[in-house]
Amino acid sequence: MQQSIADIRKEYSALSLKASEVDANPVDQFLTWFDMALNAEIMEPNAMTLSTIEENKPTSRIVLLKGVENEQFVFYTNYNSSKGKQMAISPYVSLNFFWPELERQVRIEGIVKKVDADTSDAYFKSRPRGSQIGAWVSPQSESIESREILEKRLEEIELKFKDKEVERPPHWGGYSVKPTIVEFWQGRPSRLHDRIRYTFSESKNWKIERLAP
Ligand SMILES: Cc1cc2nc3c(=O)[nH]c(=O)nc-3n(C[C@H](O)[C@H](O)[C@H](O)COP(=O)(O)O)c2cc1C
Question: The pTM is what?
Answer without folding.
Answer: 0.96
